[in-house]
Amino acid sequence: MKVKLVLGFLLACLALTAVLAVPSLQVPAFYARADLLVTVEETYELDFSSKSVITLMSASPLPGFTLDRFVVIFEGGAPQGVQPLKYDKKSERMGVLESVLSYNGEVSLGSNGYNGTCKVRTLTVMRRTTWYPLSGSIEVDTSEFTGTGFKDVTLKITLDNYAPYAVKQVLGPEGENLLDIKSQEALGAGVVKVDPKHVEIKTSRIGFGKYTVKVERNDAYILPSAMLVIEEDFIEQTLPAKGSKTLALRAKAGWKPLGWIIVAYSVAPGPLDNNYVQVEGDLANFVAEKKDEFEVRGASLLIPPLLLHYWIRAYLVYGNTVKVTNLGKHDVQLLAIPVYFREAGTWTSKGVEITVSQKDLGAAYAAFLVVQVPVLARIKSVTLPSGITVTGFENYTASWDGEWRTIIVEDHEVAVQVKNGAKVDEGVYTIAVEWSPLRIKPVDAKSRAVAGAEVTVEGPLKISGVTGVDGVATVKIYAPGVYRVAVKYKGSTAGEIVLGTLMEQEITIPCALYDLQVNVKTALGSPVTGAQVTVSGQSGYTQSLETDDNGRVFFTQLPEGTYVVKAEYKGVSAQQTVSLSTDTVLDVNMGILFELPLLGPVTATTAAAVGVASALVAGAAFSRSKRKEEAEIELE
How many CA atoms lie within 13 A of 574 on its CB side? Predict the structure, then answer.
């Protein structure tokens, strides 16, 4: 019985040891992208009466910054006849040119029959990007801009949609909670913009100093990179003075809850009294506001004037529920729009294709295609089901069979309206996406490049490449997501990492590759020149080299593992086993005592054998000689 218990205990220990010996799965490396944007604004009055073509140039970027974009904005829209000639993108609303964008800092405008003047604002946007590993919090210090006089400095934080992280807290330089809706309202609409994956802060409005963005990890925070987003019919209600209303998203088959668009407004007699509404939710953002006072007066005081005020406030709330409370003494009108999403589309080497049908959208009032891609990718154009390709536009709003349609194409995200009211544009949409290649560089234990290594990238798709003479493999992915990158070299997997964030930079992969120096020696310690040394690994890899004048061979960049090392020289061989986990020097003793012409090397073993044989021969000869002598004596 005791024997059985002991055996059982030993087996359990062995099983536990086997479990503990299994290497842990690598955690994907996710990063937050932090962009500091400095915008310089200038105004011009363009005179087309003296010039038919006018060129505008951006300001020079600050040291350490790059030009992000140069934008020319027409106040009230461009006059008829003014056309952009040199640009990258433009924005139009209902056929009126509103702005022109350039990435290289130069915009040319031409006059086609217009001989007047027009006012424009130019924005030179400079950018400096820093990547922060995602863990608990991200800290960005903007103190360098104190006293510089820059009036528009913005901090943007971006998390990948497919990263299991979400923004949970944003703190200002004084430790103030910028996600508190009262703080946002005090600062003004749009000073702080936030959603689960993005933060945008006008630091020049709040104050320069250290900003902290705290994130939380949970797989529930993963969002698709391509999705259909629907907005249902708005809910309209009247909130009485001091009253409140709580709204909850209902379950919708095939769709996931995203949040609410909340618009509250009021028109009432008297001046503005700064009593509005209070909005509460998991993550609420104050995004827009309009307010004013005006007087209603006739030709005389027969009917005395009436002082009125109005205000409109808009909020985006992420999560299932929202509570709105009327803090004022007048009724408030409330518009609440439920928003849902679901994953959509198929990623191809040309972009992402998304099929839209009325059946899919159901009773939604409005619907959009939304695609958000990593920094490694850039959105180029949108092809509609009709075959029309929308390119060269950043913001495009146009009439649409009695309705209107909005398409917004930015570098890393796009929103295409596919339904507005009863109007639906069914069919296949293609969002063209251009991906920069991944540059992957394996390095050995000495940080040397590894040429000829096979690199496999596997995730949403699988691609392989081979490192060139520069030690870099270039592979082109075309789908966002987490990728495992493995390096196979000389028959073994030498290194691997798991990529979370896809950044536009060279990725270095440390590999367990080491050098083995083999010194082949005689029994007396002298080097053996011209010996053939072969290493054989457990993976089946073998390599043979010949020793130099010093009896040495160098095997470089061997994968970690156990190798059999065999040295051969003119019929003599010796063999050893070595476990390689660092750069190693191995001495192999061939046992050679000396080398004779014609006969070759003589080992100690050979010499010993020769010595015994010689003694036996000599002994036999002596015995025969003695017997012969004795016989001769007897005859006498």
Answer: 20
Assign 391 to helix, strand or coil: strand
SS (H, E, C) 512-556: CEEEEEEEEECCCCCECCCCEEEEEECCCCEEEEECCCCCEEEEE
Rounded Cα distance between 525 and 165, Å, is 62
Strands 438-443, 507-510: pairing is: parallel
Among 230, 254, 278, 258, CA closest to 166? 258
Residue 72 corresponds to which amino acid? V
Q: What is the pLDDT of residue 21?
A: 30
Tell me if domain 436-510 and domain 513-602 are identical in fold: yes
Mean pLDDT by 10 residues, the chain (636 residues): 39 35 60 97 94 95 97 95 95 94 97 92 98 93 96 97 97 97 96 98 97 97 98 95 96 96 97 94 97 96 96 98 96 98 96 94 93 95 95 89 90 96 94 95 97 97 96 95 96 95 89 98 94 96 97 97 96 95 96 80 68 42 44 38
- β-bridge mates for residue 177, sequence order: 171
Residues 444, 558: Cα–Cα separation, whole Å: 9
- Domain 513-602 is found in CATH 3.40.50.10490: no
Q: pTM for the whole thing?
A: 0.84
Residues 53, 81: Cα–Cα separation, whole Å: 12
CATH of domain 436-510: 2.60.40.1120
CA distances from 491 to 247, 334, 484, 507 (A): 61, 67, 19, 22
Q: How many CB atoms lie within 10 A of CB 78?
A: 24
CA separation for the pair 114, 79 (Å, rounded): 8
In the prediction, which pLDDT does 274 show?
87
d(CA 316, CA 332): 18
- C-alpha span between 338 and 380 (Å, rounded): 30
Domain definitions of the chain by residue range: 226-342, 436-510, 513-602, 603-635
Token couple for 345: 């589309």
Choose among 537, 539, 526, 518: nearest CA to 584. Answer: 518
Q: Is the dihedral of CA 604, 609, 611, 612 positive or negative?
A: positive
